[in-house]
């Protein structure tokens, strides 16, 4: 019983102009409500950011986009003039926030999904980047970062919010050079940030059109002690383009981080570009490898190690897993024949033991991120469910499935389909009903 909230880019075309980049569309927040009596309801609303409301009135795109050149744009006063709030959602102290990586969190009513507005955690931090991938700590507080490189600088803003939703601290850490990061990971003691080096092209255009990854340069890795969030220990490792991380845990005086590496640099800069243009036949979303980053804190050394697992994305895990061992990872993947340029299955990976459980939804089904939901009253890691959304382009409908997290290979315990389709989204969170 509770609600699966999801967010994703849903409005991608106005007045004959269609966005080229998947990250550009204005955000739509969904509420999939499990009512506790076997019934399910779905509700969704666009996030009423200043950008969206002004463009609705004008009937055309007015502001710069992350990955598409928009003609005749209007000047922006701050990050939130162009904020799409389209990537993820998080709940904290009963409040719901829609997030993207370059601006403020936008508060949304958890029941009606009406937009309340941008959140200012402290007056001098108004409109500063608050990324789409905050991480809850075991004490109920929330850690996050803002990438200052997205607004022309070279620094990280490290956020820490208390479980009451109030700001505990906000610290700026200078970075050695431009480095792109979309998410981060953490252990009980440390935060880990992996920055992929990039240069800006001199010619004009959107952020991702001007950005060029530089695989010849080393990735810079910042390890931040939670007790001293204004300082970082820096590491270097071979270049890696990463959007999403799995778990991280302490081992032998160091840290092991699991992440999904994008192996095609051009695809990493603009994922699903062909599909955005309607060319499903040539679109591929599978050039990925699950890798481990091994950090030796005493010697300040870092190295990558392949796990042998490929064609996955959006890895999640049970946050109750002890921080001394690797977690079981749950991720969409591709299995067997697939007609669509996306994932069609979900898998559970025990990386250390080399074991995998998999459920394939079918040739035509697109499988999105599957969120882990703990079983109420249980403290045992992985005792719970996976709740994931689906898109059936043949029947033109969206759906949702619930699987036993310990028995993924047995398939859904329950599955439901809407009488309509909604756009593919990115990330979600489950809020249990009290």
Task: Using brief descriptors, characterize the structure shown.
globular, mainly beta, four-stranded antiparallel β-sheet, six-stranded antiparallel β-sheet, single chain, 434 residues
Q: TL;DR of this structure?
A:
This protein has four helices and 31 strands.
Task: Tell me what you see in this structure.
With 434 residues, the chain is mostly beta strands. The chain is built from 4 helices and 31 strands. The strands form 8 sheets. Strands 14, 15, 16, 17, 18 and 19 form a 6-stranded antiparallel β-sheet that branches. It has a 4-stranded antiparallel β-sheet with strand order 5-4-1-31, with no helix packed on it. The model has no long low-confidence stretch (mean pLDDT 94).
Topology:
Layout: E1 2-11, E2 13-14, E3 17-18, E4 26-34, E5 40-46, H1 50-58, E6 88-92, E7 95-99, E8 106-108, E9 115-118, E10 135-136, E11 142-147, E12 155-161, E13 167-174, E14 179-180, E15 185-186, E16 190-200, H2 207-210, E17 211-213, E18 219-225, E19 233-237, E20 242-251, E21 254-262, H3 265-269, H4 273-276, E22 288-296, E23 301-310, E24 329-333, E25 345-350, E26 355-360, E27 366-374, E28 384-392, E29 397-404, E30 412-417, E31 427-432
């Amino acid at each position: 019983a509770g609600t699966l909230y999801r967010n994703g880019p849903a409005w991608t075309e106005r007045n004959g102009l269609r966005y080229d980049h998947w990250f550009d569309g204005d955000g739509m927040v969904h509420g999939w409500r499990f009512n506790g009596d076997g019934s399910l309801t779905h509700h969704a609303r666009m996030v009423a950011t200043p950008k969206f409301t002004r463009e609705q009135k004008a009937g055309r795109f007015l502001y710069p986009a992350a990955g598409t050149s928009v003609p005749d744009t209007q000047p922006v006063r701050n990050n939130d003039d162009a904020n799409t709030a389209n990537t993820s959602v998080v709940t904290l102290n009963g409040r719901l926030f829609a997030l993207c990586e370059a601006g403020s969190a936008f508060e949304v009513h958890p029941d009606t999904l009406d937009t309340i507005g941008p959140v200012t955690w402290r007056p001098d931090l108004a409109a500063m980047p608050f990324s789409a991938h905050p991480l809850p700590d075991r004490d109920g507080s929330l850690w996050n970062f803002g990438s200052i490189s997205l607004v022309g600088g070279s620094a990280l803003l490290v956020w820490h919010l208390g479980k009451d939703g109030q700001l505990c601290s906000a610290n700026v850490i200078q970075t050695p050079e431009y480095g792109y990061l979309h998410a981060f990971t953490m252990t009980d003691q440390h935060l880990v940030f992996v920055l992929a080096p990039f240069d800006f092209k001199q010619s004009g255009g959107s952020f991702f059109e001007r950005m060029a990854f530089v695989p010849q340069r080393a990735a810079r890795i910042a390890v931040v002690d939670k007790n001293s969030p204004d300082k970082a220990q820096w590491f270097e490792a071979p270049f890696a383009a990463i959007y999403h991380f799995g778990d991280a845990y302490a081992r032998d005086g160091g840290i092991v981080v699991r992440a999904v590496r994008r192996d095609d640099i051009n695809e990493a800069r603009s994922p699903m570009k062909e599909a955005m243009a309607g060319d499903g036949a040539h679109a591929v979303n599978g050039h990925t490898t699950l890798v481990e980053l091994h950090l030796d804190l005493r010697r300040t050394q870092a190295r990558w190690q392949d796990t042998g697992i490929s064609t996955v994305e959006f890895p999640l895990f049970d946050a109750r897993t002890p921080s001394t061992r690797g977690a079981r990872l749950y991720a969409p993947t591709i299995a067997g024949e697939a007609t669509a340029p996306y994932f069609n299955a979900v898998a559970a990976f025990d990386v250390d033991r080399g074991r995998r459980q998999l459920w394939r939804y079918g040739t035509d089904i697109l499988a999105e991120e599957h969120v882990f939901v703990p079983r109420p009253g249980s403290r045992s890691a992985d005792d719970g469910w996976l709740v994931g959304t689906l898109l059936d382009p043949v029947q033109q409908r969206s759906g949702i499935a619930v699987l036993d997290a310990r028995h993924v290979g047995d398939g859904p315990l329950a599955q439901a389909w809407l009488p309509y389709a909604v756009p593919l989204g990115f990330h979600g969170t489950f809020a249990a009903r009290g």
